[in-house]
């Protein structure tokens, strides 16, 4: 008990020292614990972006929910997209708790999204013009998400680590859902196979970009140094991308698909995949909401937000009256 | 009129071979049930990502999944009888062969689900609530259907309906009892839904035969039960419950439909139609 009371009287430097001791000892930081400002701000940015990406990520697949080609697929993709919205909700709650001491709410998160201050993942700015895209998103985008999220399962911030644990468990089902769609196409007619290869070609660059630039030098900024320092994650962007290749390149080839990058190979001497770099300038443009579908999808979100303003108003009036 | 043994039960699809008339009427009823749930679930799925808040998006989507699951169970009953494959029945039939109520095929509002949707949440709440209550009344009756495979499906569906009904009732009361714009919008939606609600409550031209064969109770009884269930809710929100409901845009049970259904079928079967014989 005396230790707790005296904590308040420590200088900022001492508090910071204590905090870093806890981080380095692998302890979990909780919402009400003291934390340095840059830790809080990094988490808010990371988790709000993750949460909003789940929600924006529902949009490309949502396009295919009403169109799924069988009753079973309709049920499967409905469940999958619903899960993604659920992830979004879970994460926004974690972000809201972190924002509370700053006097900010979910309303600010949505406004930041509309203003373009809050980014969402590059993959969700891309078009999904065929049913094969819906399958590919489940298989490889969720597959990539599993890799990045697993990397943060032991994050020093307890509420985020716990949310990720639940999310990762569901992501495994998503990858299976996607794989099942993909396998049906891969074993299907000539047209179905072509549709699948086209989708892979279309998504390849976005998938490489998904893990982020290799270093800050590539795009000017990178959160990876600070997130590693605070033990929010362990591996670098490039390590994650390599893990993705190791897991998925053999699978892609085994179902009869061609890699969209002909130069790609595994360099035995370096123990690394060698591949053609995506266009990182294009990446910067995409996450600035200048991707092929950025405006359209933001418009959908914004329109539904305004269109339902009367509902929120009615609900808030009611709670005020109680 | 051919008399019927009131204790007659059909336990397996194969037994239907000896009862061709019964089978014909049963098929008609199953299409009504399947098509109602299928098209409303489709309309619900267009709302995905557009609901008033994220929590509602999740809850609504869960209800849509259940409802699509119910449609799939009814189409499976039809498949078991030998009418066709469930997926073909859901995706391939033209609007003239569909038996859903016209109210359920109506678009969610102006715009398209991918472009400039200005969907009407008041209409969504009223349509879903009134339909779900009608479905509850129907399912309670079907639990005693003479066609046992249908009675078994009704028992399963009933377990999920409690939550759906509670969900929509809560929205209905909350928004209708709110003041100002919300109440006005809700009143407009109620009037709009009643114009075609008769189409939900009817059993179509073969309704009398359905009753005779013990498949379901009469339209009149079902309607009375619906009114009984709604009376206290209407009192709570201080609205009048009409005694008659319209079928302004036709009787879907007889294959009368609007262009909204044709357009919906084109969308929901877009991928299926690329190759109906392929495995997807
Ligand atoms: Fe997710
Ligand atoms: Fe996922």
UniProtKB/TrEMBL annotation, chain A:
Source domain of life: Bacteria
GO cellular component terms, A-Z: cytosol
NCBIfam families: PA_CoA_Oxy1
GO term, biological process aspect, one: phenylacetate catabolic process
Name of this protein: Ring-1,2-phenylacetyl-CoA epoxidase subunit PaaA
One Pfam family of this chain: PaaA_PaaC
GO MF term (any one): phenylacetyl-CoA 1,2-epoxidase activity
Organism: Parageobacillus thermantarcticus
Signal peptide: none
Automatic annotation (TrEMBL), chain B:
Gene3D superfamilies per the UniProt record, alphabetical: 1.20.1260.10
Coiled coil: none
InterPro entries in the cross-refs: Aromatic_CoA_ox/epox, Ferritin-like, Ferritin-like_SF, PaaA_PaaC, PaaC
One GO term (biological process): phenylacetate catabolic process
A GO cellular-component term linked to this record: cytosol
Superkingdom per UniProt: Bacteria
Name of the molecule in the record: Ring-1,2-phenylacetyl-CoA epoxidase subunit PaaC
Native organism taxonomy: Bacteria, Bacillati, Bacillota, Bacilli, Bacillales
């Amino acid at each position: 008990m005396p230790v707790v009371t005296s904590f308040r009287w420590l200088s900022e430097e001492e508090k910071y020292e204590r905090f870093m001791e806890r981080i380095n000892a692998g302890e979990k930081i909780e919402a009400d614990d003291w934390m340095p400002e840059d830790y809080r701000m990094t988490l808010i940015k990371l988790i709000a972006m993750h949460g909003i990406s789940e929600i924006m990520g529902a949009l490309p697949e949502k396009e295919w929910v009403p169109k799924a080609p069988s009753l079973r697929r309709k049920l499967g993709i409905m469940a999958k997209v619903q899960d993604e919205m659920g992830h979004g909700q879970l994460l926004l709650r974690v972000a809201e708790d972190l924002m509370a001491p700053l006097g900010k709410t979910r309303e600010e998160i949505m406004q930041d999204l509309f203003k373009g201050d809050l980014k969402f993942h590059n993959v969700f700015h891309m078009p999904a013009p065929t049913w094969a895209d819906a399958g590919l998103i489940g298989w490889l985008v969720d597959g990539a998400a599993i890799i990045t999220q697993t990397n943060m399962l032991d994050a020093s911030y307890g509420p985020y680590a716990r949310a990720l644990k639940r999310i990762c468990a569901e992501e495994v089902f998503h990858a299976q859902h996607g794989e099942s769609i993909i396998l049906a196409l891969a074993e299907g007619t000539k047209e179905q196979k072509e549709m699948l290869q086209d989708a892979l070609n279309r998504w390849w660059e976005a998938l490489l970009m998904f893990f982020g630039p290799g270093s800050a030098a590539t795009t000017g900024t990178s959160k990876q140094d600070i997130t590693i320092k605070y033990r929010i994650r362990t591996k670098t962007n490039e390590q994650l991308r390599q893990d993705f290749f190791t897991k998925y390149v053999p699978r892609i080839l085994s179902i009869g698909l061609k890699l969209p990058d002909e130069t790609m190979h595994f360099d035995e001497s370096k123990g690394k995949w060698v591949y053609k770099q995506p266009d990182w300038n294009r990446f910067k443009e995409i996450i600035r909401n200048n991707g092929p579908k950025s405006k359209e999808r933001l418009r959908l979100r914004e329109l539904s937000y305004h269109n339902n303003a009367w509902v929120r108003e009615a609900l808030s009036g009611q709670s005020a009256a109680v | 009129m051919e008399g019927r043994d009131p204790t007659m039960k059909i336990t397996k699809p194969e037994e239907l071979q000896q009862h061709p008339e019964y089978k014909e009427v049963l098929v008609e009823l199953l299409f009504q049930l399947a098509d109602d749930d299928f098209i409303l679930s489709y309309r619900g799925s267009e709302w995905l990502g557009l609901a008033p808040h994220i929590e509602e998006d999740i809850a609504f989507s869960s209800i849509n999944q259940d409802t699509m699951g119910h449609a799939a169970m009814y189409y499976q009953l039809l498949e078991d009888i030998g009418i066709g494959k469930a997926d073909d029945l859901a995706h391939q039939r033209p609007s003239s062969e569909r038996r859903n109520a016209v109210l359920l095929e109506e678009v969610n509002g102006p715009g398209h689900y991918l472009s400039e949707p200005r969907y009407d949440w008041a209409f969504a709440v009223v349509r879903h609530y009134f339909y779900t209550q009608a479905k509850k009344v129907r399912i309670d009756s079907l639990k005693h259907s003479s066609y046992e495979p249908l009675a078994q499906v009704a028992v399963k569906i009933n377990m999920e309906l409690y939550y759906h009904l509670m969900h929509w009732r809560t929205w209905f009361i909350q928004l209708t009892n709110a003041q100002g714009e919300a109440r006005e919008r809700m009143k407009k939606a109620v009037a709009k839904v009643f114009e075609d609600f008769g189409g939900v409550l009817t059993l179509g031209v073969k309704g009398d035969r359905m009753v005779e064969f013990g498949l379901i109770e009469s339209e009149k009884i079902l309607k009375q039960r619906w009114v009984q269930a709604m009376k206290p809710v209407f009192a709570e929100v201080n609205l009048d419950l009409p005694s008659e409901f319209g079928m302004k845009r036709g009787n879907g049970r007889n294959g009368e439909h609007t262009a909204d259904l044709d357009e919906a079928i084109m969308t929901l079967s877009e991928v299926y139609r690329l190759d109906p014989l392929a495995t997807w």
